[in-house]
Sequence to fold (199 residues):
Amino acid sequence: MQIYLFRHGQTPGNAASRYLGVTNEPLSELGIQTAQAAGCDPTVEEVLVTPLLRTQMTAAILFPKARQRVCPGLREMDFGAFEGRSAREMSDDPDFRWWVEQTRCMGPCPHGEARMVFQHRVCAAFLREVEKAMEANAERLHLVVHGGTIMSIMSRFARPEADYFDWRLGNCQGYRCEAHMGPEGLELTDVRLLHRVEP
Fold:
């Protein structure tokens, strides 16, 4: 089964390099234009999105005739007290410095999630969706989600393996891969970076 994972288009917070997790921002004008430039596939019947507007707006552009199915478990990490702020703005914030310097961004954000908790949530939700699609003998599965969501999925399931941050994508970029159930569970192979939607 082929899986297509797309990151949503740019938002104002993305443009300002702000931590954007649960904040429900729409796409910026540039984000809309970039999504439109990525092309579209009107043959896709269903696309998985998150509860956040930026994924739903992007999916509506990339897959204009698809029914959107919201999967809450695939939402972005909750950055808690860091939400809506940039690293530069928080350079003197002791909580932020501890999170970056002492935990290497793995510890819990104040009033938010720890990255390991976030990754576990995302990967469990993704695995459920892939298993359902395989049981239905689907040929393709399309998702429009978040950068952290994709990094979590790829760092857990992609083969050959790579570090979490190695899977970082720009807005409206994506990965196409083949999903297989191997002896050790789900594996994503034949990974290809996508700059445009493939009909």
User: Anything to note?
Assistant: The mean pLDDT is 97.
